[in-house]
Amino acid sequence: MTFRQFAFNNVLRNKRIYAAYFLSSLFSVMVFFVYGIFAFHPALKEVHPSVTVGLHFAEGIIYVFSFIFVLVSMSAFLHSRKKEFGLMVMLGMTNKQLRKMVFLENVLIGSIATISGVGIGLVFAKIILMTAESVLELKESLPFYMPWEAIILTCGAFLLLFVVISFFTVFILKGNKLIDLIKGSAVPKKEPKASVVLSLLAAVLLAVGYGVALTVKGDKVVFAMIPVTVIVIIGTYFLFTQLSVFIINRLKKRKGLFWKKTNLVLFSDLAHRMKDNARTFFFVAIVSTVAFTAIGTLVGFRFMLTNSLAEERPFAIEYSSSFENEQEGEHIQLIEEKLDGLSYQKLPVHIKNVSIPSLATEYVPLTGVISESEFNAIAEAGGRSEEQVALDGQEAAYLYYHSTMMEAEDIEEVRTIDFAGKEINQKTAFGSVLMRTFDDYLIVDDAFYDAIMDFEQETFYVFQVDDWKATADMGEQLLEDLGVSDTNGYGEHFTFSNLGYDWYVINQSFGTVLFIGLFIGVVFFVAAGSFLYFRLYADIENEQQKFAMISKIGLTDKELSKVLTTQLALLFFIPIITAVIHGAVALTALKNMFNYSMLESSVLVLGSFTLIQIIYFIFIRHNYIRRIKSYITN
User: Fold this and answer.
1) What is the DSSP letter of 434?
2) Which tens digit of pLDDT belongs to each residue from 363-384?
3) Are 70 and 165 in contact (CB under 8 A)?
4) Which helix (H) or strand (E) holds 44?
5) Entry pTM
6) Do residues 347 and 461 touch, judged by C-beta distance below 8 A?
């Protein structure tokens, strides 16, 4: 048997230990390759060049994270195999041969993971391309092609990564002595102690960080973001290294709890395992927090913009014309031609701009006046009948633009206005989204409105269409036909906007960002779960020996399963629950910043993440308990 065959057989013998590492590495390769398929897709590069740039950027993030992930994973495996390496050295293997064996094993696993990841990516490439068409709201299909550039880039990048990681593992092994390898992790451990001061500091830092994040509003959230993040990160580190150990030690001193049933076995070395794995738990908590906070933010922004757009744009098409616009009639006719075949309602609002001395300011010399009947007509058509007004000849209502994303204006609700020598009683002032010219208006009685003679005319047209999403293509064509080059819909002496097209543009833009961020987040999620898997399995040999001895003094099979399940759940879910709480606070702060509820997106992201981790835990628990019981019975 050659040395290469020996290394290959070693991988096969340790396939259970390497399984999670291999699958996680394969997943990282596959995601990187999928991004490469999109980034090099000829159709996507022509239609959305900015998307390809974002995809390449995402590949870079995944690659850097994969390097850290593989390096930490390999360190955990080397730690769990110390005794095996010690026996090999005792049997005559030199340190050089030992390092060479580990190097070959790692390169072998990396090569297989790279080839498998690319292969699986190719198999599912067409399905992934079809999914992207839906998420990105693409009008044209993304046909399958042979992504040679993506294959070469992925294979070259990850083979280099695994080779570099293999060199790192050689240096990790270089400083180990034979006695350290033989002892492995069997060195007696002192009772872990926690500092009371640092434990209290952890609680105070987290309480302060959460308190500030949940109480600041508006623009203050931006200024509080960095200090709050730093405080919470430091607090999280001390939470796992100090506070968790302190709590466990305090629980052990409560004899009523400690001596109850199997709690003695449960708490016996729980503090040790928390202390030993504190850095891993801290890393998992922070990575998970970053992952689903980022995804929650992206999903939240998409919900916020698309939902608020639909809620605050009552009409499918809006057209505003100033008195200088000579093409108003021609433009309205063109819009009606495009709407031919759809059921729609056209409603004009004629605005008379007049000078009212008591309302004039240095910047706004004219005030728009609209009639009660025309405003009530668009209020009814826009589904806002509660905003309709009832006025007599000497009454007026002050109207200003206001959406849920804006603070209400400070306007005197009741006042007397001097209108060309006549007094008008302003009976109310209210905000609305119906007049999307974003100006303020006086709504007056029809008779009073008709009596106004000295004015400058503006007109605001709204087109109510039940199926407003069906007007997206039409809106894009109208922007071109009307000669509107400004992305905000401003033409010469007029403005035009189409709800369907604007919704499509926003949905597609955030679909791109969400698509990129989603895969990065999934990689982070998988890595977080895998880190916990590696750390739990690194100590499995000691756990097998411990529970084998305990079973001899009367621990039943049912009690063994209960103890292992409880201990695994604590070790697995404490960092996950910490991350969920961190993320919930972060998304709440985001809500306070934009004054928009992100409950739906938060529940979706946090719920999905938690469900994935629960499924992962069930899988880990089944295999872990099976291996412990198998060792005891053999």
Assistant:
1) S
2) 345 578 999 999 999 999 988 8
3) yes
4) helix 42-47
5) 0.69
6) yes
